[in-house]
Amino acid sequence: MLVVILVGVLIFCNVIMAFSLGLAATPHKNVVLENTLPSEALLHPEVKALTKKYRLSLWKIALVFSLLNFTMFFVHYESILMTLFWLFLLIPMGACYGTELFYIRQMAQLKVDKGWLLPVTPVLVDTKLTLTKNKKMLHFGYLIPALLLSLVLAFIMLNSQNDGAVILSLSLVVGWLIAFACWYGVKRLPVAAPTNVEKLNRQYNDLTKHDWSVVAVGTAYAILFALALPFFASQLSGIWAQVTIWLLLIAVVGFSLFTVWYLIRLRKKQDALLNQVTDYRYQGEDQYWRFGVYINPSDHRLMLPDRIGLNMTMNLGRPIGKVIMGAIGLLVVGVLFATLIPVYMMDFNKEPFSAELKNEELILKAPFAATSEIKLDDIAQLALVNKLKKPVERTNGYGGENYSTGYYMVANKKATLYLDNRVQPFLKITTKKRDYYFTFKEEEKTKQLYQDLTQKLP
């Protein structure tokens, strides 16, 4: 089941990358592949041929790696499987980005060869528009109910004795702060004057501010919903828990697709406004987009709209922009190693799980999992079982095809797992507050531990 999910995620990512990066080849504000062209050049045969080759290259990359993803079905080690997942996620991203850079330079060369060099116009300052630039964007008040609901839900989680309550409650607060940061970034965006017509510039800015603020506010409620469902699913049992999880997956995919559709709709509305004029005010910004990202040390803005019209991007010319981008890179590397190291230790360590009887207590350990110290007097029952009673819900820990470690809910009771799922039986240790499930990599060692504990208990 795990490999099916991973392959599905990778194919979905490949399609999204090919589609979203391909939008750079569709003219938007006279910009094609990060190069601003005269209006009469947008439909030139060589421009159309170059953009067609660019899109085709992206879809070829998506197809090749989507087919390569199926090799994951033949991998037996979970660590190798997760390594392939990361490689098949990051390498296509790099390949698509490299393809974009190549065709940006091809378009720049074509622009020079054809003499399509536009005169640079001075920045147009509209003081009236600047004073009322946020007239149409959603007010901060729309974010307040999401904040209050997040705080109330966080309080409920912290008082529920759920093992994942702390992480979920912190995620709620951080999620709202991310949504607020997006909203504030939209509010701080300076006005744009892409035409010489004051009315069109006002409509363009009002439209952009409104729709982007809708996305920011919607993100706050989407994060709240996405974190609330797993918590309530852990309180349910049987078919209702599974229905809740499927509802979450459908909601996440649905919100993602709706957001893409909504921003494409905004882009089309912007283009419809700009098509009402024959001239486009070019301010020499092409030189700051040579690498597909914005790098301009002289620009005071940190966040600004990208040139595709579907995203907000960061000015990497500012020191804070470089720091944030570096922090994101370190976070990705940290997640990568945090994902891979425990699985490699479990796959290639002769005995990754340990059980030690010491001072009238049993100590259970597993790589990157919480250590359990169980007093022998607290053990109510011991048993050897061949499977876990359903429902089984992971609240905080690792849950793969071969290994299960960390905090779970098993048969509606808190449980801590240290399991190699391929080795039966499992040793089940029952206490008043929590159950513990443990197995060595060798069946006989697990049975021996059961015998040793049985002799020590009354």
Automatic annotation (TrEMBL):
<feature type="transmembrane region" description="Helical">
    <location>
        <begin position="58"/>
        <end position="77"/>
    </location>
</feature>
<dbReference type="Pfam" id="PF10882">
    <property type="entry name" value="bPH_5"/>
</dbReference>
<keyword id="KW-0812">Transmembrane</keyword>
<feature type="transmembrane region" description="Helical">
    <location>
        <begin position="83"/>
        <end position="104"/>
    </location>
</feature>
<keyword id="KW-0472">Membrane</keyword>
<protein>
    <recommendedName>
        <fullName>Bacterial Pleckstrin homology domain-containing protein</fullName>
    </recommendedName>
</protein>
<feature type="transmembrane region" description="Helical">
    <location>
        <begin position="164"/>
        <end position="186"/>
    </location>
</feature>
<feature type="transmembrane region" description="Helical">
    <location>
        <begin position="212"/>
        <end position="233"/>
    </location>
</feature>
<dbReference type="InterPro" id="IPR027783">
    <property type="entry name" value="Bacterial_PH-related"/>
</dbReference>
<feature type="transmembrane region" description="Helical">
    <location>
        <begin position="239"/>
        <end position="264"/>
    </location>
</feature>
<feature type="transmembrane region" description="Helical">
    <location>
        <begin position="137"/>
        <end position="158"/>
    </location>
</feature>
<feature type="domain" description="Bacterial Pleckstrin homology">
    <location>
        <begin position="355"/>
        <end position="448"/>
    </location>
</feature>
<keyword id="KW-1133">Transmembrane helix</keyword>
<feature type="transmembrane region" description="Helical">
    <location>
        <begin position="6"/>
        <end position="25"/>
    </location>
</feature>
<feature type="transmembrane region" description="Helical">
    <location>
        <begin position="323"/>
        <end position="345"/>
    </location>
</feature>
